[in-house]
What does this fold into?
Amino acid sequence: MKNPYFGRLLTAMVTPFTKDGVNLKATADLADWLVKKGNDGLVVEGSTGEAATMTLEEKKAVLQAVIDRVGKKCKVIVGAGTNSTQSTIELIKALEPLKPDGFLVVGPYYNKPTQAGYFEHFRAVAESTKLPIIVYNVPGRTGSNILPATVAKLAAQCKNIVAIKEAAGNVAQVAELYCLLPHDFTIYSGDDGLILPFMSVGATGLISVVGNICPKILNNLMDAYQEGQVREAAGLNAQMLPLAQAMFVESNPIPVKYAVKKVTGINVGNPRLPLTPLSKDAVKVVDGVLKNFKLVK
It folds into this structure.
């Protein structure tokens, strides 16, 4: 297996909405913009894509629009995780005929499984498809943590589980993952602001929110680190950090959807309820950072 499996920089793409549904033209246009700006791949219908508020038909339509526009230019990964093993498998079977390059499967949320439960869940999901799977560990959204030993057991027994998106925010946990996993198993950082320390202990890629508006600085940062220019990488990380922080001044993807409209000119609409548009105070924060980065005038 190659490492990173799907490419180094994948962006968790926002989903363009209208008042009545999804904006498929804006979806395709945004996917095209993201690839031209330097993303190796796109993750559609993840947390940033507001998958939890989308219908199955919307998910099919959005995935098809992205594959049709950029499927020959980049990897297209689709989120397919739910809090139920059976419904996750059903979602995978519904999306698989559209021929994505792989699936991002979040740990079941709300249920708070044991480690044995996590293992059995992901094993059942992996057995339901031949396509490669990224395990998504995000305790802040799911309520519990997938431990490195569990991920290592999955990697050993499920050959199509090829990567993890690690968003527990714990450098020591990434170091442990690197110790336990085969070295061709890809560890993606799930946090823009932690890509540099995560790379220092074994991560080789990033699934990004910031990549929706400024993938260049992320690529430059990772280039510098991989070329051994650690101080330069640290400087680029320091430059990037205010942008990453601004994208979480309110719940993701509220700030980044606002920023995408400002930076790209593509109307991606507002977040769906229960998320609300960016507040006036937060608009000032995001606008200030975008101007400092010269992403807007």
